[in-house]
Design a protein that fits this description.
The protein is mainly α. It has a single domain, classed as Butyryl-CoA Dehydrogenase, subunit A, domain 3 (Up-down Bundle), CATH 1.20.140.40. 83% of the residues lie in helices and 0% in strands. The protein is built from 6 helices and no strands. GO terms for molecular function: enzyme inhibitor activity. This is Pectinesterase inhibitor domain-containing protein. InterPro entries: C/VIF1 (IPR034087), Invertase/methylesterase_inhib (IPR035513), PCW_Enzyme_Inhibitor (IPR052421), Pectinesterase_inhib_dom (IPR006501). Keywords: Disulfide bond, Signal.
């Protein structure tokens, strides 16, 4: 009798564990679907759904983020773009032999450094403090700063491709922030 009772207890525990595991997986899958829907809903309200969605989904935290977290992920995507552009500019500074062109590149680098080191981290901080207006202002400020860099080049900026992508990200970031 004790053997049968022990077997039944083991069987019940095993059955309960399997049921619990299935419920946990279903709940996790439902959360992932809901968060994916949130990303899609927010990105549909931006100027470029595909770029928005790919930028946000490239971050492993996207599946666990609420609307605030999605905004932070987008601003961090902008930060990554600013960092890449700054690295590109620094490479141009080292490569060029033309002193006038080098001066313009240095000026651009000096414009991008505070964007990377101060403005974008402050935008993330503003989002975390739910001061969305300040974060939106930062997006506009960054756009004006990168435009001022490009205007130094009379025959077209060698940064146009990078800054065009950056402007798209800024527009998306602003659109997301306006939803909060």
């Amino acid at each position: 009798m004790k053997k049968t009772s022990a077997f039944m207890s083991f069987f019940q525990t095993l059955l309960f564990s399997c049921l619990f595991l299935q419920l946990t997986q279903s709940s996790t899958q439902m959360n992932d679907i809901v968060l994916d829907d949130l990303v899609d809903d927010m990105c549909k309200k931006t100027p470029n759904f595909d770029l928005c969605s790919s930028t946000i989904h490239s971050n492993p935290q996207a599946g666990k983020s609420d609307a605030n977290g999605i905004a932070v992920i987008m601003v961090n995507g902008i930060l990554q773009s600013v960092t890449n552009t700054l690295s590109f500019i620094q490479g141009l500074v080292k490569e060029t032999k033309d002193p006038e062109l080098q001066r313009k590149y240095v000026s651009c680098a000096e414009t991008y450094i505070p964007l990377e080191k101060t403005i974008l981290p402050q935008a993330v901080d503003s989002i975390n403090k739910k001061k969305y207006g300040l974060a939106i202002f930062s997006m506009g400020f960054i756009g004006k700063e990168i435009d001022s860099c490009n205007k130094q080049f009379s025959n077209g900026s060698p940064l146009n491709e990078k800054t065009g992508s950056l402007h798209q990200l800024l527009d998306i970031g602003t659109a997301i922030l306006k939803q909060l």
